[in-house]
């Protein structure tokens, strides 16, 4: 069975000693039910983790505690290796990246991000928000009888800050009417202590306005992507005749492999930027429903697998990016199979090999894999006379990098090298890392399935969710890179809208180029005609 790229047994297992540490400030009855190892939160009951999320007058999640308590100073820090930056995403229409919690607030805000991200495995966001509202109400009721209104106002401001961080980090949690209703209910409660035009009310108003803008921007993006989805060519037109020689192909639009690889990178970064952390958690949220259909070693775990079992609206971004990979593979196969002359088909194959190599050099592994997949599709792979004329040394190197043996060990080594280059880069060109998305999905899937959610004592295995959150954080960091290459609208328009043959049409074009050679191919050709 495929394994994840990191060995987790020592990191995520239930073994090891732990200690219970109390929360900071006044907490509820479940707050002591948290286990720390070396000062880091590793497990706890769901109720304790929820209470740990909610601020009090004297406490805010992940805030730096007094230096007189070194153990508490480390209490909710993530595992080593986390790095956070204060940057803006070049692709985010709202300015701040949708994963803005860890982008904007720096490395101290990791428990909030990790718990808000991973808690949806156990409950939908609107239920978590409802529980947060209940805890807030209980805290407020304890404060109201007191004479000091300043404490009540301070508590309200911290609740608003938590909600602000939530709506910035995961705005699409609030597409759900229940969640939006819970948000408004909490906002109403915390503003009751504030005077007209007070700072708390102003903060709430700004938060709601920003949230609605983010939701509207995503809706518009989905509509635009639907309009740009390329049509498939049906069987009829292909059967009648090969396309005329004068009809434009990819070489007529761009004959420079480097330029085409750069334009593919533009498209990749634009499309992957529409994926948000909560979208990636759908990989986990929906895999629990796959127990009756557990994918085997040879069956890929894809976004399409998730889409047919999950909420289509919530997996839209994953589905769209997965679809782009398939469309690019089919476009490569179409461009090869539609060519009439063998000499020109040979040139087309060598061109795409060079494009894939340039993608590898850039760090665009997803497009590279899609191109290789397109050339390995049966209608292209069977063109033996054409391939005999191709200089395949470069192609052999590319296939070596994408060799699936040892869980794609060669690819993972190359990905690690690109990641290290990105971390020490002095230019935007060196920062580009676009992993093979289906392999990333598979890694998250098996990380979730291999390691248990709960420990023997009933606690949530928070070590596991630290690691899931770390991997998602790393992926989201890659999506923030601004593409340094000049955009060519003509080339991109062709890549996104050029007709793509269906699988059946590809076989027809392939057989017309090089006739069937064995009984199986002859039977297939006969059935297609």
What's the topology here?
Elements: H1 9-12, E1 19-20, E2 34-37, E3 40-44, H2 46-53, H3 70-73, H4 100-104, H5 110-118, H6 125-143, H7 149-169, H8 177-191, H9 199-228, E4 232-233, H10 235-240, H11 250-253, H12 257-272, H13 277-280, H14 282-287, H15 303-307, H16 316-337, H17 342-362, H18 365-376, H19 378-381, H20 384-387, H21 393-401, H22 405-423, H23 428-431, H24 437-450, E5 460-461, H25 462-479, H26 489-497, E6 500-501, H27 503-513, H28 519-528
Parallel strand pairs: 4-6
Antiparallel strand pairs: 1-2, 2-3, 3-5
Helix pairs in contact: 5-25, 6-8, 7-8, 7-9, 12-17, 16-17, 16-18, 16-27, 17-18
Percent of residues in helices comes to: 55-70%
Q: Oligomer, anyone?
A: single chain
N-C termini distance: 40 Å
Mean pLDDT: 78
For the biggest β-sheet, the strand order reads 1-2-3-5
Radius of gyration, whole Å? 26 Å
Q: How many helices?
A: 28
Described by strand count, sense and barrel closure, the largest sheet is: 4 strands, antiparallel
- Overall geometry: elongated
Q: Kindly state the number of beta strands.
A: 6
Which structural class best describes the helix and strand composition? mainly alpha
Proportion of β residues?
A: under 5%
Uncertain residue ranges? 1-18, 20-31, 64-108, 233-242, 295-301, 304-310
């Amino acid at each position: 069975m495929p394994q994840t790229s990191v060995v987790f047994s020592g990191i995520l297992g239930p073994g090891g000693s732990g200690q219970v540490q109390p929360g900071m400030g006044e907490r509820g009855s479940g707050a002591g039910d948290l286990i720390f190892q070396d000062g880091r939160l590793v497990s706890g009951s769901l109720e304790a983790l929820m209470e740990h999320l909610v601020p009090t007058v004297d406490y805010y999640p992940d805030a730096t505690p007094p230096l007189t308590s070194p153990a508490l100073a480390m209490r909710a820090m993530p595992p080593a290796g986390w790095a956070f930056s204060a940057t803006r995403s070049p692709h985010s229409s709202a300015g701040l990246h949708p994963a803005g919690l860890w982008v904007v607030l720096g490395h101290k805000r990791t428990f909030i991000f990790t718990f808000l991200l991973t808690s949806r495995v156990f409950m939908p966001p609107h239920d978590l928000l409802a529980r947060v509202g209940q805890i807030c109400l209980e805290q407020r009721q304890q404060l109201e009888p007191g004479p000091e209104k300043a404490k009540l106002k301070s508590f309200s401001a911290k609740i608003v800050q938590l909600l602000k961080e939530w709506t910035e980090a995961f705005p699409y949690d609030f597409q759900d009417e229940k969640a939006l209703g819970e948000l408004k209910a909490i906002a109403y409660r915390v503003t009751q202590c504030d005077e007209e035009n007070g700072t708390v009310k102003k903060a709430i108003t700004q938060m709601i306005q920003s949230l609605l803008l983010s939701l509207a921007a995503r809706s518009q993006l989905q509509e635009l992507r639907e309009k740009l989805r390329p049509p498939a060519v049906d069987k009829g037109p292909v059967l009648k005749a090969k396309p005329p020689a004068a009809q434009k192909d990819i070489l007529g639009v761009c004959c420079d492999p480097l330029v085409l690889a750069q334009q593919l990178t533009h498209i990749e970064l634009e499309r992957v930027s529409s994926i948000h952390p909560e979208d990636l958690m759908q990989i986990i949220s929906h895999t629990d429903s796959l127990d009756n259909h557990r994918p085997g070693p040879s069956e890929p775990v894809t976004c399409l697998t998730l889409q047919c079992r999950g909420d289509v609206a919530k997996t839209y971004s994953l589905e769209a990016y997965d679809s782009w990979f398939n469309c690019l593979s089919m476009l490569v196969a179409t461009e090869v199979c539609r060519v009439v002359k063998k000499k020109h088909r040979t040139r087309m194959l060598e061109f795409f090999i060079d494009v894939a190599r340039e993608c590898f050099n850039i760090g665009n592994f997803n497009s590279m894999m899609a191109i290789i997949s397109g050339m390995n599709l049966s209608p292209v792979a069977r063109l033996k006379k054409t391939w005999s004329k191709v200089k395949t040394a470069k192609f052999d190197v590319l296939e070596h990098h994408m060799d699936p043996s040892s869980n794609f060990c060669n690819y993972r080594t190359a990905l690690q090298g690109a990641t290290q280059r990105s971390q020490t880069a002095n230019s935007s060109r060196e920062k580009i890392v676009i992993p093979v998305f289906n392999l990333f999905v598979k890694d998250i899937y098996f990380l979730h399935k291999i390691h248990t959610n709960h420990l023997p004592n009933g606690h949530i295995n928070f070590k596991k969710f630290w690691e899931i959150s770390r991997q998602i954080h790393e992926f989201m960091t890659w999506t923030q890179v601004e593409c340094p290459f000049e955009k060519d609208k003509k080339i991109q328009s062709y890549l996104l809208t050029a007709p793509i043959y269906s699988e059946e049409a590809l076989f027809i074009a392939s057989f017309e180029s090089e006739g069937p050679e064995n009984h199986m191919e002859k039977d297939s050709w006969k059935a297609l005609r």
